[in-house]
Structure to design on (399 residues):
């Protein structure tokens, strides 16, 4: 016999967007379940560098538009959650760094004085005196300049744990993407979902929210009508395992206003330090092989940090696509995006930092529609297993 379940809201995809929504909507009294085909956070979220951007990077590139101003509120909002005083309790999340630093090496520092002065004028960025430099730049061979940017970096793994913990009972693993039954032009009638053990359940919800990252492509094409166009922006990221104990949270600037390399550091499970590299090198390295990209990364680090020896460092790289709604010219979207059509909502935060804004915007829509809270009937889901939380990417690649 086909089993049935009923909830107010079914969310598909347990990256930062789905998890944040699960927390917020449950607190508001809705019965919510979150369905995941892989590991929790295992799409883009656990590959994020964890920087809570406040929009300064876009201001530097002259692309701060009115909608991207929304990101400026994010650091304060995250901060209150991290101190246990916000809408979600993130007091157990590890803050890796309070600041992201901007720096330039000696040769370029002179040419970039005007650029950095302009940055400082835009606020929330301050020039540091040599004695205030982070430890890694305290070497006599470092001749550059360093600015502190008011943007923190979080440990994404502890973030995932904090978001999952209060709602473990509401998260279920599905073996394959949910099969959707449409209700003519009225949106979705039900989802057919299958557990890893082959149990099949028909799930009815008042709202279906798709936060499946790349998986949204399938739903955007086959379910949402009118179709929402999607885009992928590929990156070729590098992780480097070192013996250095320095924390490094910094954007290294060359002659362009895009960081040549964005570095965050993390601890691998064997206790060693991982330098995680994004920025221009990841965007431009998408046509390189893994071997070429790792060699380039070590060469760049050796040129930038002339006083550090990277000859024994172990590097690995991986490709990942950013999944987003399509933008003119394939550009980076300004802000979080969602579209509500009938009882379906398709959503992309476009940045980890913007997940709270995405949830706020969706909740406003649900409240305007006066979506009511009802009791869930999820007995039929008892046989569904719980997805694992994704293992940090450096531990997957280098340990
Ligand atoms: C390398 C990298 C570094 C980044 N660094 C930062 C940063 O420092 N700061 C920042 O703010 N942003 C950063 N970002 C952006 C940020 O990570 C993403 O915008 C954000 O994680 C997207 O979250 P999401 O929940 O939409 O998608 P995802 O994290 O991709 O989650 C989607 C989930 O849906 C699941 N899924 C897929 N298909 C289905 C299906 N059919 N049914 C159910 N589940 C499904 C997937 O398994 C996955 O778990 C970075 C992105 C990348 C790629």
């Amino acid at each position: 016999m086909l089993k049935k379940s009923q909830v107010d809201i079914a969310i598909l995809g347990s990256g930062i967007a789905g998890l944040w929504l699960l927390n917020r909507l449950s607190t508001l009294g809705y019965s919510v379940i979150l369905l995941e085909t892989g590991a929790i956070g295992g799409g883009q979220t656990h590959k994020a560098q964890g920087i809570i951007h406040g929009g300064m990077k876009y201001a530097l590139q002259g692309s701060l538009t009115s909608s991207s101003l929304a990101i400026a509120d994010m650091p304060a909002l995250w901060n209150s959650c991290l101190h246990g005083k916000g809408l979600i309790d993130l007091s157990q999340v590890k803050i890796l760094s309070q600041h992201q630093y901007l720096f330039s090496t000696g040769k370029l520092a002179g040419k970039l004085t005007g650029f950095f002065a302009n940055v400082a004028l835009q606020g929330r960025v301050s020039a540091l005196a040599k004695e205030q430099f982070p430890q890694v730049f305290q070497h006599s061979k470092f001749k550059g300049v360093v600015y502190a940017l008011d943007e923190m970096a979080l440990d994404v793994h502890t973030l995932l744990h904090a978001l999952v913990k209060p709602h473990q009972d509401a998260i279920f693993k599905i073996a394959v993407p949910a099969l959707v039954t449409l209700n003519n032009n009225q949106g979705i009638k039900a989802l057919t979902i299958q557990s890893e053990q082959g149990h099949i359940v028909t799930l009815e919800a008042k709202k279906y929210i798709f936060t499946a990252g790349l998986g949204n492509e399938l739903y955007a094409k086959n379910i949402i009508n009118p179709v929402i166009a999607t885009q992928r922006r590929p990156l070729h990221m590098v992780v480097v395992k070192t013996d250095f104990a320095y924390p490094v949270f910094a954007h290294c600037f060359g002659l362009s206003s895009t960081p040549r390399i964005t570095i965050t550091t993390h601890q691998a499970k064997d206790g060693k330090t991982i330098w995680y590299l994004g920025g221009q090198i990841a965007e431009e390295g998408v046509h390189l092989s893994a071997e070429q990209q790792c060699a380039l990364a070590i060469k760049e680090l050796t040129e930038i940090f002339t006083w550090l020896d990277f000859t024994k460092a172990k590097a690995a790289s991986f490709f990942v696509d950013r999944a987003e709604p399509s933008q003119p010219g394939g550009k980076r979207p300004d802000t979080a995006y969602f579209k509500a059509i009938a009882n379906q909502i398709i959503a992309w935060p476009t940045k980890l930092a913007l997940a709270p804004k995405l949830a706020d915007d969706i909740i406003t829509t649900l409240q305007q529609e006066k979506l009511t809270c009802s009791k869930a009937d999820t007995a039929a889901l008892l046989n569904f297993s719980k997805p694992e939380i994704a293992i940090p990417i450096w531990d997957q690649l280098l340990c």
